[in-house]
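Please annotate this fold before class:
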Amino acid sequence: MPTQWISTYRRCLMQFRCHRGGVYYTPENTMPAFQEALRAGYDQIETDPQLTRDGVIVLMHDDTINRTCRNADGSEIERPLRVADLTYGELLEYDAGIRMGEAFRGTKIPRLNELLALAEGSGVQISLDKKISTDQVDLLLDVVENYKTKVSFSTSTLERIEKIQKRMPDATFDYDVNLEEDALREVCRRVAPERLTVWMYLDKPNFAWLAQKAKVSPEGFAMVKKYARVGIANVNNPLDVKEALDYGPDVLEV
């Protein structure tokens, strides 16, 4: 979404979340993208922490680096390279920016602590997707607890909520799963409404990944709003923005 839209829609009194940390003309999940998101005035930056083979938490959406990264000379990477199979040092051999143009040549895959340090004191919330398993979530918390940055944790299970709350009782959560009212009621017994955002998605044809997501509807939105803040995602163009705004969400992911 063009960054000037943020100020245009501020009158709607909602927050804006930047998907994969990426303003549309910057390479996603990189420091240039995060810096531009802060400059543009986003309230939240969503990103995707993953563990390298040597236990470093880096920010990358896909399991492999092939879509977003290139070899140092700018050529495409021929064989699939999984983040989990590479050390952090090995990841630094690849260019995470050149795909988006020469201006971003030399950009590296960032570590989570770099983003937390950048956003510390800004008031911007860093929303961490759930790519690190619940069994390994303590490794994520070890990094987060070193900073005073506002953070939220994506979750689809009570187990993950409870494990995070043992170390961070006042943690903020993004609940992202197909919704049933009984399940949502159970979540809300553990998380205060102001610290819980339930995410719903604009439904679109040919988006297979939406099968596992809660599609927004007037009835579903009204039900969720009884229990928590509501975020709407899969917003990609002006018509999507208009459709989402008609619901009156608390957060819009663009």
